[in-house]
Amino acid sequence: MKDFIPQIPADGRFPYLTALGIITDIEFALAGDENILAIAIKGAIHRQVKADEIIKTCKDNIRDNYNVMADMLSVKLVERIKAYQLPEPENNLHPLFQQILKPFTG
Fold first, then answer.
1. 97: enclosing H helix or E strand
2. Is residue 76 part of a domain?
3. Is residue 60 part of a domain?
């Protein structure tokens, strides 16, 4: 039984597990790295910022500084982060505000 490794479906049914895997890999990749970007990302993980926000920040940094992020994290992890589909933001507006904004937002 100790050799049992659960298989996570790759069809996107559990995106939070994918995000958790990416965050864990980022944390391990940055262990011992002391540049300002690594410290900021590790700090966000330590403060328990939402995984999607951390991944979005990493995606933005990858877009701006691909080579730096690839050196810090590895090309394989950078490509996993780039391929990760961030969820659509939730619309938490009051229905009245949604009605008012509808002509402007489509």
1. helix 95-105
2. yes
3. yes
Structure tokens at 90: 């939730």
Dihedral sign of CA atoms 20, 23, 27, 28 in order: positive
pLDDT in tens, 27-64: 999 999 899 999 999 999 999 999 999 999 999 999 99
Answer whether residue 46 is part of any domain: yes
Tokens of 36: 């300002």
The domain total for the chain is 1
Residue 38, domain member (yes or no): yes
Instruction: Report d(CA 92, CA 72) in Å as an integer.
Output: 36
Kindly state the tokens that stand for 44: 């966000």
Average pLDDT in the 71-77 region? 94
